[in-house]
Amino acid sequence: MSTTLAKWMTLIIMANIMFAPILAYIDSLHREAVEVVLQEGAKKAAIEGRFTNELVDDMKQELVDNYNFEEDKIIIDATQTLKTRNEYIEASIEVPRGIIFIFNIFNSGPDKIKKNTKVMSEYIG
Amino acid sequence: MAHSLKVMFLMLLFAGIMIMQYNLDSDRTSTRQMKNGLELAVHDAALALDNSQLSQGKVVFDQWEAVENFKASLEANLALESGAGYVYFPKESSYYQEPFYVEHLEFIDDDDGSFPQVYSNPKYDILDTLNGPSIIAVVSTKSPRYFAGEGITIRKSVVYEYYD
Fold first, then answer.
1. Angle subtended at Cα B51 by Cα B61 and Cα B69, rounded to the nearest 5 degrees
2. In a designed cystine with A94, which of A43, A75, A123, B74 is the match (CB 3.0 to 4.6 A)?
């Protein structure tokens, strides 16, 4: 009985450890996706003077289409009032984080990825 | 005995590969974040123009304000605190652990010459054709390490130019 239990426990822990690198890699790619979308969005927003509704929708769509995030769970909080030149535009994207361990027996940190950015507007009224 | 030795060897090998993967990943993340942060910083810096010169059709940077914008942007986007001169220290919330150095910050505008011009900086291995007033920035830091080993020094350079 105890041998069987020990074997199963070892198996579960081993499986957890074995899959950790690949899952951590996927987690890192998710972060990259969020950062890149936010960065490109910020560059476009700087020209427009704000995050327009289309821009926010485009960012969301890109995360959904290219990186398989769930649309309802993406929270984009961005400056939508028009800012003129030299004023700051801010934005943040929050998405649920994937798993790090296939069996949830270790602490794997926060369950959300949140990224912020801040850029100056170049819009001249 | 032989069996446990085999298991131990495999575990060590696995741990080694995992450490390597995490370290390489942190290099990749820091490189990307630095490039992105630096791009936004020079963008903000390039918005600081001397208005009196602008009315005469010349694009000349207001360098004092440009440096302030550059600083503010790096601080906000990479969670840094500026120290003395061109050194920045990571805040607690920052991904980084080692200080940031702004190694080079150069403004080339209508005051200094005509465009297009070829810009070359052999020290940082930059060679670029500038089509308009430009800002060149080089930043370096050490990549953070979760596991054993010294982080590599990452150096990123960005050239931001006005183009008409």
1. 45
2. A75
